[in-house]
Write a structure and sequence with these properties.
seven-stranded antiparallel sheet; Alpha-D-Glucose-1,6-Bisphosphate, Chain A, domain 4
Length: 155
Amino acid sequence: MNALTPDTLIRNPQGCTVTACVDINADADKVWQMVGNFAGFHHFIPALERIEMTGTGVRSVRKKFFKDGENVVIEQLNSHDDQQRRMTWSLIYTTLNIGNLWASMEVHKTGQGSRAVWTIQGEPWEGGPKALPGFQAFLQEFADGAMNNVRNLFA
């Protein structure tokens, strides 16, 4: 019998990368208060009913419940830097067709306000390379919608 060795399902995804970027006429620190709040994404993602947190800070875990009553996403906060206004997180579990997923959120000062950037790198759980174009379109639409909501909340 072979000995067990360390393994994990959490790894860097190999599928696709999408970026949603919005310029906002608001102070970067105020925008960061919204998008940098790992427990507060339901404020700008209308599909989310609520978020439950376990722990605080890096290594904390959030469970996102969707309004459809069927879907959930569980993610872990990997890094969080309020001074640089950036954070990263990874997927642990979901009912959606998402395999591995890594994401980051950043807010930068601009001459007229700020720029919020959400980057997602992910791969579908099922369907392989054939599913990638539809999966990428799903991620892009989701991220663009959320970031447009952020901009609208500061309008």
